[in-house]
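Progress against Task 2.4 (sequence-to-structure conversion) is shown through the following example record, which the project officer requested during the mid-term review.
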Amino acid sequence: MPPALQTIIAASVRWLTWIGDQGTRAVAAVVFIAVAVPPIGALLRHYLTVAIVCLLCISFMRVDLAALYGHLRRPGLVAAATAWTTLGVPLIVGLIAWATGFDNHSPGLFLGLMLQGMASPMMASPALAAMMGLDATLVLITLVTSTALVPFTASLFAGLFLGAKLSVTPLALGLKLLGLLAGSLLGATIIRRVVGAEAIQRHKRPIDGINIIILLAFASAIMGDVAHDLLTDPIFTIGVALMAFAIYFALLAVTTLIFRRVGYERALALGLMVSQRNLGLMLAATSGALPPATWLYFAMTQFPLHLAPYMLTPIARRLTARAETSSTPAKAGAT
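Structure tokens generated for the chain above:
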């Protein structure tokens, strides 16, 4: 390899490593960069599906198979969390919207809410949980099981609640989701075979950096019009932003309370996962053919998605420290 190319590669790895080391700070900065530089969004919107597939590939590529099998041997908690995120959340969202008439009053926002509820957890959730010091393995296995089910559950709930509001049929939605997930899994499997799991683990920090850059591309593609919307209709835009925060923290709080019996550290990890919905997957499955209000809601959800991990990190670390402190006397007594 020529010396000049070696220098460029080494500098790129150092730069990516630095970005990856910023953790939740870099994830939080993503949304502000995306809003502050609208031309990036206009340029990248055509590559939205590519960004989503890359994020999926990276997440599948980094799956710890040994940890995955370990949790599968104790499937009770994983099954309960999977049922809640794939069945409970979309069913409750749909029933509340139907009972209050929100589906007819604001069809664009209702479509965004339902697609959010039907989506699987975001593929970056395990990485975010790890950055916060939470149980990333539990998040990972629940993410894998719920993602495997989402083509079927999303098709079911689209048929129940959306009907003509969706630009694609429920069956087509399910098939597109299945194709995206299967293609990403195949790509990740090939990368793992060629590169090797040890090399992937060894280069964890620069891969984190790549992940954050792709998150920036994804957020920019969705949030390119936010500044314009805020100037033209500030009241509606701020209202949608408040709604996005309320839904995010409601999912986080309710999930944490439901699973509090397994310990608040694990419950918070599951709450983070359930509140971090993979809206990009739904955008790709619908080919972005969504009403303006739905696009705006998806853009506003990026604020809590990226800011909440940074905001919640001190709480997560206190819970983790408390759990470790309480487990130490138990181990000492056992010996």
